[in-house]
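Protocol step 4 of 5: obtain the predicted structure for the target chain.
Materials: sequence only (see below). No template structures provided, no constraints applied. The aim of this step is simply to have a reference model before the mutagenesis design in step 5. Sequence pasted as it appears in the construct record:
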Amino acid sequence: MSVTVYVPGEAAALALGADAVAATIVAEAARRGIDIRLVRNGSRGMFWLEPLVEVSTSRGRIAYGPVAAHDVRGLFAAGFLSGGIHPLHLGVTEELPWLKRQQRLACRRIGIIDPLSLADYLAQGGGEGLRCARAMAPVEIVRAVTDSGLRGRGGAAFPTGIKWRTVLDTPAPQKYIVCNADEGDSGTFSDRLLMEGDPFQLLEGMAIAGLAVGATMGYIYVRSEYPHAIAALNAALDGARDWLGDFKIEVRKGAGSYVCGEETALLESLEGRRGIVRAKPPLPAISGLFGQPTVINNVITFGSVPDILAHGASHYQEFGCGRSRGTLPFQLAGNIKYGGLVEVPFGLTLRELLYDFGGGSRSGRPLRAVQVGGPLGAYLPETRFDTMLDYEAFAAIGAGLGHGGIVAFDDTVDMARQARYAMKFCAVESCGKCTPCRIGSTRGVEVIDRIRGGQAEQIELLRDLCETMIHGSLCAMGSMTPIPVLSALEHFSEDFGWMRA
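Step 4 output (C-alpha cells):
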C-alpha cells in the first residue's frame, strides 16, 4: 500500500527548494523500493517552515520542516513515512499552534488537497455552495450574500451583496464576472496562496456570482508576476469545464502595472488598452467591461462565497464583530519572526496578531511600527497595536485593513525614509492621468528629501501637498498615497527633524 507524501508546489516553497526536496523524496523511495504517492499541495502558510513535508499516517498528517534535499535520506532512515521521530519532526499538522488557533473559512482547504484534482476538492466539501446556488433564484443568492455581511476583501470593504444586487437589477444583453487577482500590495499573498492551493474554490465563487446576476462569462485578471498561479488556474479550468456548465471563465495575464489593481484601470487593460483609471460614474456595476454590467471582486471575496452558500448567511455572521463579519486572511511580513498567512475572525487586536502569531520581530528588537493595508496604508506606532482588527476600528484611527497585508518594522527603521518610499512608489506606479497624483507624488519626493536634509520648515508644505492629492486625485492611488506620509508625520515626527526644528 502506497504512502501519500505532500510537498508544496507553491511559489514561496519553490523558492526555498521544494522541487529539489520532492525529486529527492521520489528518488530515495525508488532506491529503497518503497511505493509512495507524491502530492504537490498548496502552502499551509507557515513560511518559516517551508518546504513543509507532510506524510499521511493513521494518526493524521505528520509534518516535517523546514526540509532541504540533503535531509531526505535521514528522514527515510528515521521512518518518516510512518511518522517517525527526526529533528525536523513537528507532529500532527493540524495540532501545530499556528494552525490550531486559526479559524479558516476561505483558506480551509489550502495545503490539504491536491489543488489540481476536482475529485479531491469535491471530496473535501467543495462544490456544495454551487450545488445550493443552482437550486436558488438569483435574488435569493444575492440576499444570502447580503445577509452574510460579506464585504469586499480587496481593500475598499464595500458590501458585496449591494454590488451584486446592482448588477442583477441592471438589464443588459450580456453581463460579466471579473476577478481582480492583480495582488500587488507589499506584504500580501493570500490571493496567490488560494489560486495556487485551492483554485477550484475561486472558480466556484465566480460561478455562483454568475448565477446570482445572470452572467455567463468570467475573467480572472492575474498579475504577470504570478506564473504558478496562472498555471494552476488554467489547469483547474481544463478539469472543471463540465462542472461549471454554461459559465465560462478565461484567465488573463496582467501587464505588470500596480494601478491595474484599481478596478476601472483593470477593465481598460482587459479590453486591450493601457491601464488608465476611468472617471466614475458610471460605476462598473452598471457600465463595466465592454460597457456592460460587471461584478468585480477580488480572489478572497469570491473565495468566501461558496462557504456562505453552503452553510448559510447566519453561519457566516457568527464570525467577526460589528459590521466586520466573517474572517480575513491576514498576511504577516517584514521584520517578523513567524511570517505567513493567518485567517481569523475580525475582532482580534493587532498586537495579538503581531505577537501571538507573529512572535514579535525577527531581529529580536522591539517592534516600532507596522504598515497595514499595503504601500498606501497607514504606519501605526506601538501605541496603536491594541486596536481591534475591524474595518470601523481602523477607520477611527485614520487607517485601513486593506487586503490584510501587515509589514512590521523594528526600532531601527527610519520613518521619514519610509514616507519617501510611499511617495516614490506613487510616482513610479501612477497611471499619469491626473495631475495631483502624477505631479504631486514627484514633488512630494523632492519635499521629503529637503526635510530629511534639515529643512524641517518644509513639513507644512508637505502637508498641503498631501491635502491636494487627497482631494484632487482621480482614484485611490493618488488620494491614498498621503496616508502613509501623514501617519509617519503624526506618529514618528522625530524622524523628520520636527523635534529639532
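Step 4 remarks: The mean pLDDT is 95. Residues 118-317 form a domain with the Rossmann fold fold (CATH 3.40.50.11540).
Proceed to step 5.
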